[in-house]
Each structure stands twice: as C-alpha cells, then as structure tokens.
C-alpha cells in the first residue's frame, strides 16, 4: 500500500504539471480512477471528460459507464459523448491484426478534434504500467498522437489502481476489465452489425443467469464462453448448461465451448452496478 500511495503522489504531481486535462473516459477502472484523481487534484474547472460511443459498445456497457460517471462526477463535470461509426471504416471492419490500432487512432483523432475546441487542455488516457508490457496495437496510436498516459508514467499497475480505487470507494474498483464487441470476433472474420448483435444477445443472456463479467467470442458458428473461475460449476449444472445451449442455438451458435482459462478477476468478489 505504501508503494501505491507514493505512486499516487507522483500521479498528482504529473497532473499538476499538465494543468488542464481532458480524460478519455471508458467507464473502466483505469479511466475512472484517472478522472477521479484529476478532479481531486486540479478541480472540476480544469478537467473535462470525453467518451466515444458507437455500435461496438454493448448497451449494458454504456449503461454501466454512465452509471459510474453519475455516481462519482455528476454535478462536478459533464460527460461529453462523441458519436462514431467504426463499421464505416474499412480498415476496422476487415478485422486484421491492425484493427485495434486503426480504431484507437480514429477514436483519439476524433477526441483531439473536440479537445482542440477548448483552451489548453491536454488529452490523457488510462493506460497503466501493466499495459506497456502487453502487445497492444492501440498503444502505438496513443504514442503517435502524443496522448499522455499519467497512470503509466507514475508507474501504477492495475492492482495498485484497484487498491487506490477501493480506498476512495470507487464503485467499479473490483469489476473485471471489459472491451468492445469487436474484440469477440475472431481475427480475419469481418466485423458486422449482425455478428455483434448475436454476441451482445448471448452475453446479455449469461448476465441474466448471473454470470457477470463474462465474454462470448465467436468464430463462424462456434462460441467460446469466458467466465470467472468461480462461475464454472454453476454453468455446467445440467439445467443451466442446457438452457445456455438452447439460447445459443437459437442465436445461430450450435457449437459452444467453455474457455478453461478463467477471467483475471476470478478471485475477486464482483459488484453489480447496473
């Protein structure tokens, strides 16, 4: 805890050096903590929040994002939603290995266009130190566009961010990480509205059964379910398993498997906020 507190002080110093920031906000714990820290450090008058909204966002994710924002920031700052249409971007829809790079670059160019309308605000992103160790094509876009990453600069890891978020009572401190619906489609398979709609319906059904934080990835007519480890036993109970198979079959997914590699927060007690 001491190390995370020291890094938190460094984060505050970095933010003070930037003076006025526009936070790329997704509703995840990283961007939420960054936005919270910015408001606490700089005051609401020196902080703006922007989020990109498009057809690749599941409805429950948008609801959750807005609920988290309302809980912690309503009345202090406004959330500016920028509408995008990724399916119109050919380099995105073809879904090759550079999809995330092209998407992130387009998104942040749109955000930068908005930020430039304000005086002397710097666009900042919730990338943490752990992200720098992973193969994330989107990071290349962030660097190319000179978007600042204060959490990573302060050396804060995901677990340290969660620890600090818990100490500040942020409601999403223990929620699993999430990503857009496009990430559920196998690389090389075109991203379409219909495929994403199937994924969203499949995940919504699992959420209704109590499997929060799940993901459904598809490749053709095959679906692979990713769950928190503590949910494995519940899913394979005959009545639950059969109901899931029937639902997925109705959605055009007759082949269903369970990924035995559990989601990263399987040991954490989840909070449902939407």
Describe the structure.
By secondary structure, the chain is α/β, with parallel strands linked by helices. It has two domains: 2-167, HUPs (Rossmann fold, 3-Layer(aba) Sandwich), CATH 3.40.50.620; 192-258, Alpha-Beta Plaits, CATH 3.30.70. The chain contains eleven helices and seven strands. It has helices at residues 2-18, 29-42, 59-73, 90-93, 99-115, 137-144, 150-153, 158-167, 193-208, 232-235, 238-250; strands at residues 21-24, 47-53, 79-83, 122-124, 215-219, 222-226, 255-258. The strands form two sheets. It has a four-stranded parallel sheet, sandwiched between helices. A three-stranded mixed sheet has the order 5-6-7, with helices on one face. Strand 2 (47-53), helix 3 (59-73) and strand 3 form a beta-alpha-beta unit. Helix 1 (2-18) packs across helix 2 (29-42) and helix 5 packs parallel to helix 6 (137-144). The two termini are 29 Å apart.
